[in-house]
Amino acid sequence: MPTSQKIWAIFTLALAWEAWSCLGSAVTFVFGDSLTEVGNNNYLQYSLARSDFPWYGVDYENGKATGRFTNGRTIGDIISAKMGIPPPPPFLSLAPDDDALLQGVNYASGGAGILNETGLYFIQRLSFDDQINYFNKTRQAIKGKIGEAATAALCNKAIYFIGIGSNDYVNNFLQPFLPDGQQYSHDEFLELLINTLDKQLTQLHMLGARRIVFHGLGPLGCIPSQRVKSTMGSCLKKVNQWVLQFNARVQKLMTTLNGRLPMAKFVFADTYQDVLDLIENADTYGFKVSNSSCCNVDTEVGGLCLPNSKLCKNRHEFVFWDAFHPTDAANQVLADKLFSNLFASAPAPH
Ligand SMILES: *[C@@H]1O[C@H](CO)[C@@H](O)[C@H](O)[C@H]1NC(C)=O
Ligand SMILES: *[C@@H]1O[C@H](CO)[C@@H](O)[C@H](O)[C@H]1NC(C)=O
Ligand SMILES: *[C@@H]1O[C@H](CO)[C@@H](O)[C@H](O)[C@H]1NC(C)=O
What we know:
This protein has 350 residues and is α/β, with parallel strands linked by helices. The chain has a single domain (24-282), classed as Rossmann fold (3-Layer(aba) Sandwich). It is built from eleven helices and seven strands. The chain has helices at residues 3-21, 75-83, 128-146, 148-157, 166-173, 179-183, 186-206, 224-227, 237-260, 272-280, 328-343, and strands spanning 28-32, 104-106, 159-163, 211-215, 265-269, 289-293, 318-320. A five-stranded parallel sheet has the order 2-1-3-4-5, with helices on both faces. Strand 1 (28-32), helix 2 (75-83) and strand 2 form a beta-alpha-beta unit. The chain starts with a helix and ends in a 7-residue tail after the last helix. The model is unreliable at 1-11 (pLDDT under 50). One 2-acetamido-2-deoxy-beta-D-glucopyranose is lined by residues 136, 203, 206-207.
């Protein structure tokens, strides 16, 4: 292994060790889109990005449609269980001065992106800026309960999981009828995304965030909603190349921020290859189908699983649940890999 790589490996291990050491008492704040949402959009009356109806949640506790965009658990649910904590509740389900705020909050919202204009045809969703503003509100509410010093300590110790950017492609740049895709080349669009993300992460740091895990994008060119645009039903290579460029730039941004912001420990969690491997070698993971979804969705209109949609027979045999989102079974595989990449090299908890 070359020296620079070795140093990087040790550095990553040290971060994992640090993250692990606070897992026992981990307060977590989650930001993101439909891949991590646990029900905020249920509280947005006019939002079209919702999943509070069957068959969503058919394999969740009591078969309940909670606003998770899958048949069962999200990757975040599975990671929370591994950390021994309940999944943080949706911000909009809590009262402004709820004691639950002290235990961690989920701000994720289906349809949300880095850019404000992303997902605008869903009418209502919490953009990443909205989510950060709500975290600021949370911080002020916590300060009202335990004072500034304890609040600063809580925010510094907490873990922040961020997974955002998919919608900036799927529900913005890749939509031919929206202005961003016409107005910008991909290089210009990527520059806009990274500059915006830089400001947003800096703002989170100002609010006390230090231990931040940014979950990179998966191979969006291979999700059912994109495959149908290819005559052979194959992955869209250009989309996957753009995603790889985005991931590389975010990873570079993490390094820049770790150098620029005091005490910052940004970690880039790259699952692109793991997701691609699951799709390309589905059978080795016990899956049978990875090129279409279990729920027989209309990819032309919405791509979500509606109450009158037909489901596949064996949901654990499909990697995708609807045109965008993995099944519970796929999330289990991906969460196991993500968790061991982030934490496995650290000592066991006590
Ligand atoms: C996006 O919206 C937020 C409020 O939700 C606002 O503070 C911010 O300035 C907006 N950003 C841009 C670039 O318009
Ligand atoms: C947090 O909210 C307060 C009050 O609205 C505002 O003054 C402050 O600038 C915000 N801080 C950040 C980092 O967004
Ligand atoms: C998925 O792959 C299978 C096996 O390779 C093929 O028969 C089927 O037509 C593909 N389905 C779609 C929607 O591309």
